[in-house]
Amino acid sequence: MEGIQGLVSGQGRLMRRLRQGLKYLMAALYVLAGVNHFLNPALYLKIMPPYLPWPRFLVEVSGVCEIALGLLLLVPRCTRWAAWGLIALLIAVFPANLHMAVHPELYPEIPAAALWARLPLQAVLIAWAYVYTRSDTPSSHGVVMPESA
């Protein structure tokens, strides 16, 4: 019996490490993407749908949000809210991705299939962020831990 408990315990540690490592990866990706909004604003201005007002302002705001939310993801007290913020941000930028997919002629340097592939990728990114909206404690995953004597 101890062998099984040890195996389960080891798997739990591995999953916590994996979850933590993926959180750091996610944070780094969002911080780098946010910084890129300021290093290469023309890239983001080009994909901005023409019906949205103040394109430069929106590019800058989305960059600041990506940086801030990426960093806040690493602050344990803020992780859940940062993850919800990233989900909201991903939903907010979806129109730009959709605009690119339905107007591939505006982006001849990017294959049309890649433009369409970005749309379901948004769902993957939302699911990844959603993982961090949940508490990391075993009781939050529907597992009831026995009380110690």
Strand count: 0
Given the C-alpha coordinates, what overall shape results? Answer: globular
Question: Count of helical segments?
Answer: 5
Determine Rg (CA atoms, Å).
Answer: 19 Å
Largest sheet: none
Mean pLDDT: 87
- The helix/strand class is mainly alpha
Cα separation of the termini: 20 Å
Q: Please give the domain count.
A: 1
- The residue ranges in which pLDDT falls below 50 over 5 or more consecutive positions are 138-149
* SSE string, helices as H and strands as E: HHHHH
Polypeptide structure, described:
The protein has one domain. The chain has five helices and no strands. The chain is mainly alpha-helical. 72% of the residues lie in helices and 0% in strands. It has helices at 2-39, 41-47, 55-72, 79-102, 112-131.
Name a few traits of the molecule.
0% strand, disordered C terminus, mainly alpha, 149 residues, globular, 5 helices, 72% helix
Quick take:
Helix content is 72%, strand content 0%.
Strand and helix map with partners:
Blueprint: H1 2-39, H2 41-47, H3 55-72, H4 79-102, H5 112-131
Helix pairs in contact: 1-2, 1-3, 3-4, 4-5
